[in-house]
UniProtKB/TrEMBL annotation:
Species, as recorded: Candidatus Termititenax persephonae
One GO term describing the cellular component: cytoplasm
Name by which UniProt lists this protein: Glutamine amidotransferase 1 super family
Domain of life: Bacteria
InterPro entries xrefs: Class_I_gatase-like, DJ-1/PfpI, Prot/Nucl_acid_deglycase
UniProt entry keywords in alphabetical sequence: Glutamine amidotransferase
DJ-1/PfpI domain location: 2-147
Record GO terms (molecular function): transferase activity
Amino acid sequence: MPKEILAKAGFLVVTASTVPGDLSGKKNLTTAHVDITLDKVNSADYQGLMIVGGQRTFWYDETVLRLCREFHAAGKLVAAICISGAIPAQAGLLRGRECTVFPDPAAIEDIQKNGAVYVHQPVVVSGNIITADGPAAAEEFGQALVEFLSR
């Protein structure tokens, strides 16, 4: 849903992952076409980074952590939803700052281990970092992304 909300607002959404081509999500309910592999993403070419996920696929992934740091250093959007909400904290971007994540005890512990302050809210905006706790917050998350990018 966030991708559709961004597209409806006029933003071009480019999908990146570790492998090119078409991907299927959990239980094959969600599909996506990968436009570019993560190793080829240049943060200078984009307004922001949005990490989605219901799995820990990109937890502590060095390429994703590097991209988070690059986007953040440039004052660009760094956004994450569901269990991926832990990734900006893993990148060291949320020390002493509030964020949210899917309310999984291991995810909350990981956020806190990395110095972030967990807040049990659907969406948390902390400067240029926006986190959301899961699918139920997808619409609010998408609207927060549009609001940030429209400034």
